[in-house]
């Protein structure tokens, strides 16, 4: 599996090199970074590297969302990544879970504003609910400010 992730990352990176404002390439790299972090997170000694991969996934998806704030699928995945990374970080004993959950809710709200029937929205909402429950925090309300700054 690791080789497949490396090949996929190279391909998305090539696409991004050819067009640096390509949100789909950044989106793909964000998902690959997250998956790489998940693989690493299973081993205690590799947890610091896993957290670096998770942070990289958030940076990439935020950049992708900045290029296209009208793609409900991308924004739903941004919400899912923030919720998932928040869940992993809380499990690792870090305290920024609520901040990441707020960002997840804001991205999800933005996605619903674009297409409230997008098929990813129910799954992402369920993920946010589950991670908030696991952390013992209330599900945040959407902020007044959009997650994606245009």
The average pLDDT score comes to 89
Q: What class do helices, strands and sheet pairing give?
A: mainly alpha
- Rg for CA atoms: 15 Å
Q: Helical stretch count?
A: 6
Cα distance spanning the termini? 37 Å
Order of helices and strands: HHHHHH
Catalogue the unreliable spans: none
Helical coverage, percent range:
over 70%
> Which strand-content bin applies to the residues?
under 5%
Number of strands: 0
Task: State the main characteristics.
single chain, 150 residues, mainly alpha, 0% strand, globular
Summarize the structure in words.
The mean pLDDT is 89. The protein is an all-alpha fold and 150 residues long. It has six helices and no strands. The protein is 73% helix and 0% strand.
């Amino acid at each position: 599996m690791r080789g497949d992730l490396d090949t996929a990352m190279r391909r998305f990176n090539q696409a991004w090199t050819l067009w640096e404002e390509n949100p789909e390439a950044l989106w793909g790299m964000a998902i690959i970074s997250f998956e790489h972090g998940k693989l690493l997170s299973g081993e205690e000694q590799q947890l610091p590297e896993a957290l670096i991969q998770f942070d990289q996934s958030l940076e990439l998806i935020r950049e992708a969302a900045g290029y296209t704030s009208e793609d409900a699928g991308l924004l739903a995945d941004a919400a899912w990544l923030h919720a998932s990374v928040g869940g992993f970080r809380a499990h690792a004993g870090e305290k920024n879970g609520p901040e990441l959950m707020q960002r997840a809710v804001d991205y999800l709200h933005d996605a619903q504003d674009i297409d409230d029937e997008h098929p990813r929205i129910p799954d992402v909402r369920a993920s946010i609910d589950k991670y908030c429950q696991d952390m013992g925090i209330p599900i945040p309300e959407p902020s007044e400010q959009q997650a994606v700054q245009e």
